[in-house]
Amino acid sequence: MSPDTSNAPEVPLPMLRRYLMARGWHLAESVRVGERGPRTNANPSIADLRQRTGGRRTVDVYVLSERGFDDIELLLPRDRDTSDCQRRLEGALEALSQLEGRDQESIIADVRSIGFDVVRSRIPDELVKEETINLVQATNYIEGVKDLLAATATTELRPDPYFLRVKKEATNYAEHCRFGHTFRGSFGFTIESPVMPNLEPMFPGVEQSPPFERRVIMRLARGIQTICDAVRGEDPAPAIERMSSGFSANVFEQFADLVEKTSHSGMNFSFLFSPEWAVPEELGTSPEFWVGPAHVETSRLAARLLRDQPLSRPEEVFGRIIRLQNETDPTDLFDRTGDRQVVVQWASEDLGDLQVRVSLSPTDYLSAIEAHKNGRPIRVQGTLERQGRLWVLSNPSDFSI
Question: Is the N or C terminus of the chain more exposed, i.e. has fewer CB atoms within 10 Å?
Fold first, then answer.
């Protein structure tokens, strides 16, 4: 029969281990109960671990080392199925509370959030009645923030001025984010973005490449920051110029819709990043922003200006030829004055189904005729550009069937 752990602190052991590692503790070894005791014990209540219980490995030892001080050791149960799991967890939390000078509730909250970057959104008091909001606002927020996260993730995957379709990976990311507890104080929403564990130690001055999920939330925070900078300076330029690390036109539009439909008078956004991964100094560990009608207007203006920018990027187009156009003799390989043009039906992952015009050399054009006649797809690389309503692949190269 498994021991009754219904009263044990609700702390996921994997998250508690990640919490310790993120704060400089390291795993020393697993021990059998009774084999050894800690040299320096931050929690005297675990001294009874010296008593033998059959030699089964039930405890992990974590060590905190600081120059000039004795090592501090903390013992964690290996799983929740041991008879004294509750006492060990309580002892570990009490030890952490003493070491960090914080209450246990705060530590437990941080442990639970170690695997997530947290985005909190708060709406003004005048829209709250008896600590509740109407369902329309709640629905608008949930739908809006999901679209905002998917658009931000798509922009992170490919930071173009705008896109025509959300990427599948971005949709999957948004669907894996979690809606946390609402919180009091002008009524707030909590969104938790999962972050993979950092398995490498962090050293001062040594940069680590953060995971995709962290990059998305950092882009979201930077984007809101650029909107606030633009409103303060009464100039949308900062928001547009920092597009490569901030918002695309689509994200500006989704952000404006979210604020306008959830709380027309304004909202507060704050971020709490998991300590497992470093955060750039310009963001800080817990950035916070208030946005209102002026920020919505600036977001929409920035979106319009970005959509006016020509889209140009390296691309490989793959698909069937649906149209051939040539004003000269296609068999004359020496005549390079004519425009031998083909139109390729291409299914772009983020732009959707496009008809792309490509001007080919005489030799490649003859190959294109054969491919068109036999219904075979072609592949060609170049620079994809939007010219009015047309999509053109300029400087084509590496044509193949």
Answer: N
Q: Give, as one character, the DSSP assignment of residue 59.
A: E
With CA atoms as reference, report the closest residue to 194 among 116, 272, 271, 120.
Answer: 116
> Three-state DSSP class for 118?
strand
354-375 confidence digits (pLDDT tens): 888 988 888 888 888 888 888 8
Read off the pLDDT of residues 239-253 as tens digits, 9 standing for 90 and up.
999 999 999 999 999
Euclidean distance between the first and final Cα of the chain, in Å?
Answer: 66
Residues whose CB is less than 8 angstroms from the CB of residue 196 and which lie 6 or more positions away in sequence, other chains included? 211, 213
DSSP string of 135-185, one letter each residue: HHHHHHHHHHHHHHHHHHHHHHHS--S--SS--HHHHHHHHHSEE---BTT
For 184, the token pair is: 């009091």
pLDDT at 42 over 60: no
Q: pLDDT, tens digit, for every residue of 167-224?
A: 999 999 999 999 876 655 556 788 999 998 887 766 666 678 899 999 999 999 999 9
Note the pTM of the prediction, 2 decimals.
Answer: 0.72
Taking the mean position of all CA atoms in its chain, how far away is CA 297? Answer: 26
* Angle ∠(202,203,209) on CA atoms, nearest 5: 55
- Cα 287 from chain centroid? 16
List of domains in the chain: 13-112 (no CATH), 116-199+210-307 (no CATH), 312-400 (2.40.50)
Residues 6+ apart with CB under 8 A from 194: 115, 116, 176, 177, 178, 213
CA atoms within 13 A on the CB side of 228: 15
